[in-house]
Amino acid sequence: MLGALSMDILSDLCFGKCFDTLNNEKERDLILEGMEKSVQMVLKEGTMHRWPKGIWDYIHSKEDVVKRKYVYQKAIGAMMERIQRGDEGGERGGDIFSNLLHAKQPETGKPYDQRELMGEAILLLVAGSDTTSTALTVIIWHLLANPETMQKLTSEVCGTYSSVEDIKYQSLQSLPYLHAVIEEGLRICPPSPGLIPRVVVDRSPGNLVIGDHVFPPGTEIGVCNISLHLNSKYFDNPKTFQPERWLQDSALKCNKTAFSPFSLGPRACLGRNMAYMEMSLTLALLVYQLKLSFTNPEKELQDGFDVEDAFVALKPKVRVQVAKV
Ligand code: HEM
């Protein structure tokens, strides 16, 4: 459901038209299965230039490729519809894609061609939905595994608002515990846990030197988020979910310079603010209105929560029961 929620939010904000996967079960299955395949293939694809030609066909079944294609077709279809609607036709104005359609290439002053826009449509859909739903899944799993933490968050949200209509992102930003819970979720299991590659550029003085290591131009280097986030040099009890470490005056070590769930530098995440907005609103609205619990608490606690690194995280399914407060 979190996958469908983030897909609906993304399609609405990005293309001005919601895919409505929360309500449409068939569509939900097709898109979410396609997303899963897409995530599974992305790491292999990223390293394929090093592999002999033709190997792609051996490692991926035709069905998986077709399933993944559905997501790409959906993104391109939404983009084409957006172009056809023009400036007036959107359900809501000011969506992300309308800005891209009006953008000019800095070198030529010309608009971006359709091929580039297609790439952007697919990137936005994949980068903007699966990451956020992974972050929310991680956070909710840890809240359910730590009832005291869930209670603190619920008290903060319910003590601040007297009706669900009052819950707005602007005021949520000043809730310290909510912010701490989100940061802790992004730390303990970042949606992009592995190596984010960068290439050493060829500029004076030539080699890049880090400590005792020398990297010539052209070398691919990178740092894994998870190796920073779970390092006890930077965070006390790194494998424990403790949002308190992010609160002012906490005695727990929490080195913010070693925290980079959205990467750093000019190619860092463009959707970071949107992600914080989405996560804050979703969590606050959930704890205000619903009571969540694991369907099978013994199994969840025994297995723990872990993801597989495939550039972005491949997450397990978490079964949750929902009741109204
Ligand atoms: C919790 C949620 C999110 C996390 C953890 C996350 C993480 C990241 C990371 C680590 C990168 C850098 C990848 C690299 O350097 O190669 C990235 C790039 C990007 N993200 Fe996010 N992201 C999130 C949500 C979003 C959302 C909601 C959007 C909105 C559409 C978005 C759009 C993008 C785009 C467009 C890029 C590419 C930037 C570029 O290449 O210049 N992300 N994200």
From TrEMBL:
UniProtKB keywords: Heme, Iron, Metal-binding, Monooxygenase, Oxidoreductase
Required co-factors: heme
Keyword NADP found: no
Domain of life according to the entry: Eukaryota
A GO MF term: monooxygenase activity
InterPro entries listed in its UniProt record: Cyt_P450, Cyt_P450_CS, Cyt_P450_E_grp-I, Cyt_P450_sf, Cytochrome_P450_monoxygenase
Residue positions binding heme: C269
Annotated Pfam families: p450
PANTHER family: CYTOCHROME P450, CYTOCHROME P450 MONOOXYGENASE ATNE-RELATED
Family to which the UniProt record says this protein belongs: Belongs to the cytochrome P450 family.
Descriptive protein name: Cytochrome P450
Organism from which the protein derives: Pseudogymnoascus verrucosus
